[in-house]
Structures are given as C-alpha cells and as structure tokens.
Specification:
With about 190 residues, the protein is α+β, with helices and mostly antiparallel strands. It folds into two domains: about 70 residues, lambda repressor-like DNA-binding domains (434 Repressor (Amino-terminal Domain)), CATH 1.10.260; about 100 residues, Jelly Rolls. Helix content is about 30%, strand content about 35%. The strands form two sheets. A six-stranded antiparallel beta sheet has the order 1-2-3-10-5-8, with no helix packed on it. A hairpin with a 4-residue loop joins strand 1 and strand 2. The longest helix is centred in the N-terminal third of the chain and has 20 residues. It is globular, with a radius of gyration of 16 Å. It starts with a helix and ends with a strand.
Length: about 190
C-alpha cells in the first residue's frame, strides 16, 4: 500500500466495525463489556482516529465470530480467483511490528485462506483468545525464527519448519531475532 493507503483501509475498517456493532444493536458499552476493550478505544477505532492493533482486532473478531482475514476482506473489493501480488491487501500493526498480507483473501464459500506474516525482531504479540474457537492454523517459517505458544506449549520454529495446530485458547507469536521473521499462515475454519 502506498502513502496514505493505510488511512483508507482504517476508515473502511472503522465503518465496518461500527456496522457490525449496529447490526447486533449493541451500544459501545455493551461491546466494551463483551470484548474487554475500553469504550473510548472502540469509539476511536470506529471513527478511524486510531489504527487498530492486531490484538484489538483479534478481540473484536472473537466477539463477532470472524477471523481477522474475514473481517479485513469485508472492507476490500470482492475477491478474484487470481490475486496478483501487487493487489494483495497489506495491513500493518505499527505498534507491534506485525505486517499481514492476504495472499488468498477469504471468500464466503471457502473455509481456507493463505496469509503471509512478518514480525520485526523482538516483536511479541499475544492473543487472549482465537477469533473462532477450533481454528486450524499451519505456520510455515519462510525466513528467520518464530516462537509460538499455544495451549501452554512453546514451539521454537526455524526456517523451513511448519507447526500445525488448532487454536482453542490464548496464543503468542514472538520473533526472538536477530532478524525479522517471515512466515506463511494457512488458516482453515472448523
């Protein structure tokens, strides 16, 4: 995405978050209680005054029963059969150093998707719950090292390694460095 492209995505994402809340008839207070995110943060995200972090989106996805890719795809144009590299949506959480490329955006009729993830050296992202319980993930390390903690088990992954798991509870992704990590993430809905 070019300069200013992130702002357009944040505006569309904020509008979609507001739509999802309105569809359920929830006030900001009710959503805050369900998600554990403050009312003011939710309001600022819906108005695109802030760019939501990966952790914040994960909490909201859990409340709305969507994967992050599904939510992000809802603010993009309808997916095509072939997605050229230059057209793949990129979303960045500047706070955590996480960059996410939707290689094969999700589609309502399909259960799987492919994502490229990049974490900066020393980046650490903790998710308190999966967006969809039982979500299947295959994490294939393309470059660098990644530590993934799921179900209280820490997995140390090097380039070429692949971790397959079902996500039922909290997870943590940490790049121990010294270089950034780049990985492919295959996500399959249960």
């Amino acid at each position: 995405m070019g300069s200013g492209g992130e702002d357009v995505v944040d505006v569309r994402l904020g509008a979609r978050l507001a739509e999802l809340r309105a569809e359920r008839g929830w006030s900001l207070g009710e959503l805050a209680e369900r998600s554990g995110v403050s009312r003011s943060t939710l309001s600022r995200a819906e108005r695109a005054e802030i760019s939501p972090t990966a952790s914040l989106l994960n909490r909201l996805c859990g409340v709305y029963g969507r994967t992050m890719s599904q939510l992000l795809s809802e603010v993009e144009a309808a997916p095509a059969l072939v997605v050229r590299a230059v057209d793949q949506a990129i979303w960045e959480d500047k706070t955590s150093g996480f960059l996410r490329r939707s290689v094969s955006p999700p589609h309502a009729g399909l259960r799987g998707e492919l994502v490229e993830g990049r974490l900066a050296a020393d980046a650490d992202i903790a998710y308190d719950r999966p967006p969809v319980p039982g979500l299947e993930q295959h994490i294939w390390i393309l470059q660098g090292k990644l530590e993934v903690t799921a179900q209280d088990v820490e997995h140390h992954l090097d380039a070429g390694d692949c971790l397959r798991l079902r996500v039922w509870g909290p997870t943590r992704f940490r790049c121990p460095g010294p270089e950034d990590v780049r990985y492919a993430l295959a996500v399959v809905l249960p």
